[in-house]
Amino acid sequence: MNRMAAYRIYRIVWLALKFYLQIMLFRKRHQGTWDPLTVNKWNQLVTKQAKEYKKAAQQLGGLLIKVGQFLSTRADIMPPTFLAELEGLTDRVPSVSRGKIVSVIETEWNAPYTQYLQTLSDEVVASASIGEVYKGILKDGTEVAIKVQRPGTERIIHADFQAFAFIMWFFRKFTPLDKKADLPALYGEMIRTIGNELDFLEELKSGRSFSDRFGTFPGVRIPSYYEELSTKRVLVMEWIEGSRITDLSFIEKHDLERKELAERLFLLFLEQVLNGGQFHADPHGGNILLTADGTITLIDFGMTGTITKADAQAGLRIAEGVIFKNYDQVLDALEELGFLLPHANRSLLKDAINRTVKMYESSELFQMDSLMLQQLLEDLQELVLTQPVQLPAEFAFFGRAASTFVGVLYVLDPEVDLLGLARPRVLEWAKSQETGGRVFGREDVLRWLLNATDPARALPQKLAGFLEEPDRFRHYLQRRDETDREWKRTLQTRTFAGCFGLLSFIGLSVGIWFEHEPYIWVSAVVLLGSLWTFRTID
Description:
Layout: H1 3-29, H2 36-60, H3 63-71, H4 80-86, H5 98-109, E1 117-120, E2 126-127, E3 131-138, E4 143-149, H6 153-174, H7 183-195, H8 200-214, E5 220-221, E6 234-238, E7 243-244, H9 248-253, H10 258-274, E8 277-280, E9 288-290, E10 296-298, E11 304-307, H11 309-323, H12 327-337, H13 346-361, H14 370-386, H15 393-412, H16 418-431, H17 442-450, H18 454-457, H19 459-514, H20 517-536
Helix pairs in contact: 1-2, 1-6, 1-19, 2-3, 2-4, 6-7, 10-15, 10-16, 11-12, 19-20
């Protein structure tokens, strides 16, 4: 391992362990005093951490950028202030010299680039952490976009994956996070999704798949690819002359209708979800081009996700289960999708869903005073922390894509009615789906009509729930006090073990850097001992 890789691993691992220790110390100092002042201090801490992470990501690039974008989707495990700070994290980095790019092209083509191109632009068109795009003209006069992998990218990403493998191992062995998330699966999905960006042939396959599915979609275009000139590190595709779809001056200049563009773009995204298959996981304005005649062009299929037909049908069963109060069906579908791990407390989760649905139906959710709302939020927080509820990685990328996409839509049309646009298409889709081995038809329509009487039938149950609320609140306080005492018994010992572990890790890093073997061995033994002590504390 060279010094560059060792330095990257050290910076990334140290940043993660530092953040974890800060959070543990904060929780120790403020255990049982989660008042508005504490919330404000907590927000200050995580905002500071997010800024530090963002600075490190911009300095190091590589996987830190991608993981930062990934973490910005994980509302199930990351605080809102952390997400807000990372929202603007992009992978725009200074471009490398044109000579190095030409060297990559000629190595991949095993020939001078002039053998295939008349010209290659002097300036880079777009630059990111993995690839750079130049404009070229083929021998027959066809204009093409040439995406080239930055030199040294594979070595950087490989070192970063080693660092994150250690971080995942640490969190799995020594933190409660493993109880609420399938960390090995999460790491594997991250490698698959982000790692695929290193192979441009995978992007070519995805682009052609989108072309097959949406090539005839009205007003939509997918660029063609030149397979004979494309390799793992060089991708050649059709050049599209256009502007970002969020360029409102371009839209105004060419007299295009913003509302119609928003509707067409929304239906394009909706089709990716309903029919299963791949979806564009990075649909920001720069990856959606608009030509002068109003044609929408999707580009850059390096990051895609997959929604199967089974996933879509499970989503329909969740909606049906909520409507008809069949919460076992809801939990079964959530478990099938991977949102819920098998060892979850189903009765506790059913009760939480039931209470939330009741409050929503009776409008209590929007009329609660601050004390009751705080109790509800603390209940939900405890539920998330104690139960194996997770957002699967593939759905996290979908969540990021959806939020990014909705932002684009609202730039085009601030008054866009997403539900109004979706309703007729979703109903049409639902009627054609098999749910539980049968077709969604008259029987389901009858059940939906019967649901109209549900508020009256649920009145006795609501009254009983109201009478039971004081007992639930008392049980909640008892559970919270027991949790506080347990944390106070273990947190101090864990903190000392964590401090020794961090100090020995620093010593180990120094030993590796200066290649001092005795220092490496001593630090490694102390580190393993600290981790073992930390792990075995009850």
